[in-house]
Amino acid sequence: MTTCPLQVLTLPTAPYPDQRPGTSGLRKKVFVFQSKRNYLQNFVQSIYSSIDLLDRQGSTMVVGGDGRYFNQTAIEVIVQMAAANGVGRLVIGHHGIMSTPAVSCVIRKYKAIGGIVLTASHNPGGREGDFGIKFNTANGGPAQDAVTNRIFQISRTIEEYAICPEIRVDLATLSKQTFDLENKFKPFTVEIVDSVESYANMLRNIFDFAALKELLSGENHIKIQLDAMHGVMGPYVKRILCEELGSPANSAINCVPLQDFGGQHPDPNLTYAADLVETMRGGQYDFGAAFDGDGDRSMILGKHGFFVNPSDSVAVIAANVFSIPYFQHTGVRGYARSMPTSAALDNVARATKIELYETPTGWKFFGNLMDAGKLSLCGEESFGTGADHIREKDGLWAVLAWLSILATRKQSVEDIIKDHWQTFGRNFFTKYDYEEVDLDAAIQMMEDLELRILGKAFMGQRFAVGEKLYQVEKADNFEYTDPVDGRICRNQGLRIIFTDGSRIIYRLSGTGSMGATVRVYIDSYEKDPDKIFRDPQVMLEPLVTVALKVSQLHERTGRSGPSVIT
């Protein structure tokens, strides 16, 4: 403990107009946080000021990040400002590192009023990369719109921030550090905690670790390859999969968290996890997975590189949900998917007579349903899957869910998927991402597209591509009414739905740091047993042609093709 009370300062500042949090917090290039005076301080103060003073005084908050460049610098500021703003205790991950799912877990374990997550998820890191800061509330999930709107409004008029600049915290040592502050009756406490243990203990209570250990290290064990992509998941994979469940140490690669993720893009898809895909194609491993920067997303692969589409992944977990002991005890209250995600989960929900919710993109919508006891399992097409054990998507949970299914069914990943398609039919699905598009051009394209598809002449219109004929049944800008509190969320994405159930969806993403990302989603259901095993890109090519023709996306954005196809 410090011997002399530390001084709390109130310093002047000026607002910035661009600190509106997106679906995953505030994300900007690192140089924005470094070069704009008090840019970080303004946003952190806005977070603290958004919490009622009585709730803030003496409270506990959690802080963790994915280890990217600027992470420790930001934590120092967050600690100094937490003390000055009356927070009583901060719980911080060892070395400042804690996965996003683990932050959610620790918030709930410590009954904290919230947490600050330092991540830009799957966006690149390093000096030239991205940095992000997100506020999670007491349920462990991303802040709802009312909270983020309040943070943004405060940021637009902020005139000063409070800070205790003399506080220095040792993030490298597991410890409890206390500081006396002037005019404070109780000391300010910082606890540096093991980043993995609370989260691992939670997983032990969800899955059958004995069965998983037998699967991974028993007499007839399978061989796995897990790629942490130099993000936050390295310590978790090593501790849980290797040390506890017995998978060989060389089954986990790229497990040292690096500030620049080894110069790679920590996005677990076929494009950015290409090395893992190539390794899996060799046939040496039965199961593979890659994780994103902050650990809330994962890609699943089978032997010979068999790719599990994220929309199929959550549907397969739903169809085999009782392979997971947690659900044997809790039952299943409901399923949910984001609107752009394929309707594969709908088919399972319909067959099992379990309620299905279609929400806007953003885990906070799932969290609201979970808090109301309406939802057990959910997923997004962007490689995010999770359940009501926490209020974030959870990449390692999804991997253990799949391994639990393998242990129960004693089949390969590919056979499980193909059996699923034969039972429920197949939703052919793809997503085209056009990244860093000129923002004005993207907005104008979306506005013109909305006018076109909402016009009376568009209803019933037919599009012929080769032997395929698509007729428009419905077109709208997706609107969601929350069944819990009745809130209405408008303008969530443009949808064209055809008479055969096929869908085209257009969205502008709010998670990039520069320009705009235009996303186009193509979803087509097929139940003909002779067609369900065909190549998805071939099956979807006619619908992709329609999507580009209707939107004139290439002409309007100057792009000849997408940045990423998943």
UniProtKB/TrEMBL annotation:
Keywords: Cytoplasm, Magnesium, Metal-binding, Phosphoprotein. One of its GO terms (cellular component) is cytosol. One of its GO terms (biological process) is carbohydrate metabolic process. GO terms for molecular function: magnesium ion binding; phosphoglucomutase activity. It is found in: Cytoplasm. Residues 19-161, 198-303, 311-424 form the Alpha-D-phosphohexomutase alpha/beta/alpha domain. It comes from the Eukaryota. The keyword Kinase does not apply. InterPro entries: A-D-PHexomutase_a/b/a-I (IPR005844), A-D-PHexomutase_a/b/a-I/II/III (IPR016055), A-D-PHexomutase_a/b/a-II (IPR005845), A-D-PHexomutase_a/b/a-III (IPR005846), A-D-PHexomutase_C_sf (IPR036900), A-D-PHexomutase_CS (IPR016066), Alpha-D-phosphohexomutase_SF (IPR005841), PGM (IPR045244). Its main location: cytoplasm. The keyword GTP-binding does not apply. Transmembrane segments: none annotated. PANTHER family: PHOSPHOGLUCOMUTASE-1, PHOSPHOHEXOMUTASE FAMILY MEMBER. Belongs to the phosphohexose mutase family. This is Phosphoglucomutase-1. The lineage of its organism: Eukaryota, Metazoa, Chordata, Craniata, Vertebrata.
